[in-house]
Amino acid sequence: MGVEPENTLRSFVRAEASGMDAIELDLHLSKDGALVVMHDVDVDRTTDGSGPIAARTLAELRELDAGQGERIPVFEEVLDAVSSPLQAEIKDVAAARALADVIRERDLVGRVEVSSFHDEAVTEIARLVPGVRTVLIASRWGADVVDRAKAAGAATLALNIRRLTLEVVEQAHSEGVKVIGWVVNTQDHLRLARALGLDGATTDFPEIRRAGRFTA
Q1: The pLDDT of residue 156 is above 50
Q2: What is the pLDDT of residue 208?
Q3: Under a CB-based contact definition with an 8 Å cutoff, are residues 103 and 111 in contact?
Q4: Does residue 141 belong to any structural domain of this protein?
Q5: Given a cut of 70, is residue 123 above it in pLDDT?
Q6: Percent of the chain topping pLDDT 90
Q7: pLDDT tens digits along 47-61
């Protein structure tokens, strides 16, 4: 989203062309049950429309401009537009069930990792799709965050880099849980990610990967 319209096919193609290891996207359900790729609950911030995604059908959402003439994609279109591994963030249990159907139908267990801020959504997708890799996301968390990840069956924690400590990383690693940091958009945060020994990081600027080889 730092260089192209957020959560659009154009942005995903750019990320893949930039050599990123994986592409992260966000999923909501439209009024008629389509897996719509957008971060917010409402369309206001990233399109020329207004109101909640859940109040519009896919056809109505398609009428909106998502930036530079891009249209709001559905998950299946992203699968066809790029070949990179995907990390799909789901907002609730209903989206987990819809995503599970697509993963099973298209045999995507090896390609798609599923993430959520909601423990129950992580648990549900793991129940529906045995073997799927899952990630528990947190912006603020307590001392039980590693236990929460394990209880939900998440192999990875995605934690806010601005609040992440070495203690949490070491605890997670000692329990066999990986840790990735978000959002790493500056050289200082890239240095921090490396100093903490993180297993990965997300960024809005794919060029930081190339620049970081020389300056971080």
Answers
A1: yes
A2: 87
A3: no
A4: no
A5: yes
A6: 94
A7: 999 999 999 999 999
* Residue 29 lies inside a defined structural domain of this protein: yes
- 91 in any annotated domain: no
| Pair 157, 182: CB distance under 8 Å | no
Segments forming the whole domain that contains residue 35: 1-13+21-81
Q: Which of 126, 134, 78 is nearest to 106 (CA)?
A: 78
Is there a contact between 35 and 106 (Cβ–Cβ < 8 Å)? no
HEC secondary structure over the chain = CCCCCCCCHHHHHHHHHCCCCCEEEEEEECCCCCEEECCCCECCCCCCCCCEHHHCCHHHHHCCCCCCCCCCCEHHHHHHHCCCCEEEEECCHHHHHHHHHHHHHHCCCCCEEEEECCHHHHHHHHHHCCCCEEEEEECCCCCCHHHHHHHHCCCEEEEECCCCCHHHHHHHHHCCCEEEEECCCCHHHHHHHHHCCCCEECCCCCHHHHHHHHHC
pTM: 0.95
The tokens for 160 are: 């806010």
Q: Is the pLDDT of residue 214 over 70?
A: no
- What CA–CA distance (Å, rounded) separates 146 from 153? 11
Q: Look at the chain and report how many structural domains it folds into.
A: 1
Please give the structure tokens belonging to residue 125: 């997708």
Q: Is the pLDDT of residue 212 over 70?
A: no
